[in-house]
């Protein structure tokens, strides 16, 4: 049955497809427009009604956590590699994710405020802690560098991303910021 908006009511059998369409649209729109993109824009882009969106994801934070769970899955896979270069690859991917989607960091900040049990920050800390010592032992990272230094550098990169006036300037600004850390093993 076609609704007045042109969407087809696919019914309960399409729940998994609807959920995936919402996640795909949310990832794209969070990346393009930021974490606070209107949820009705996400529903429209996904081709579902707002009721369907809220049935799957009652809050913005629920939606963002589902979207960005994949980011942590990627970071987990990198940190699970026992090789000494895992830290460098982890850092590079963290920076890429921050550039690709500052909404990832916005979501984490929002989660810390809204969900007392949210452990995303701790999770990121643990991923860095798992990889940094191996890189240091192999001479790939300065032994004076610690996890808090890395997380501070990440917050700095986020600041560069969110305060850049021209999107085209982001990459060069990040390159300048990461040069500050090269003597300490971040690149």
TrEMBL record:
Domain of life: Bacteria
DNA-binding region positions on the chain: 38-57
InterPro entries: Homeodomain-like_sf (IPR009057), HTH-type_TetR-like_transc_reg (IPR050109), HTH_TetR (IPR001647)
Keyword terms: DNA-binding, Transcription, Transcription regulation
One Pfam family in the UniProt entry: TetR_N
PROSITE patterns: HTH_TETR_2
Entry keyword Transcription: yes
Span of domain HTH tetR-type: 16-75
PANTHER family: HTH-TYPE TRANSCRIPTIONAL REGULATOR BETI (PTHR30055:SF234), HTH-TYPE TRANSCRIPTIONAL REGULATOR RUTR (PTHR30055)
Designated name of the protein: TetR family transcriptional regulator
Organism of this sequence: Actinoplanes couchii
């Amino acid at each position: 049955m076609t609704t007045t908006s042109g969407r087809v009511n696919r019914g309960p059998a399409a729940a998994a497809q609807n959920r995936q369409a919402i996640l795909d649209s949310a990832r794209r729109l969070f990346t393009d427009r930021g974490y606070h993109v209107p949820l009705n824009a996400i529903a429209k882009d996904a081709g579902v009604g707002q009721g369907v969106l809220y049935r799957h994801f009652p809050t913005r934070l629920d939606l963002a956590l589902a979207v960005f769970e994949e980011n942590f899955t990627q970071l987990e896979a990198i940190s699970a590699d026992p090789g000494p270069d895992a830290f460098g690859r982890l850092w590079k991917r963290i920076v890429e994710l921050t550039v690709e989607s500052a909404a990832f960091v916005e979501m984490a900040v929002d989660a810390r405020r809204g969900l007392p049990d949210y452990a995303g920050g701790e999770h990121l800390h643990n991923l860095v802690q798992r990889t940094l010592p191996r890189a240091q032992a192999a001479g790939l990272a300065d032994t004076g560098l610690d996890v808090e230094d890395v997380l501070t550098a990440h917050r700095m990169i986020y600041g560069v991303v969110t305060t850049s006036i021209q999107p085209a300037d982001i990459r060069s600004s990040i390159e300048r910021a990461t040069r500050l850390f090269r003597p300490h093993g971040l690149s």
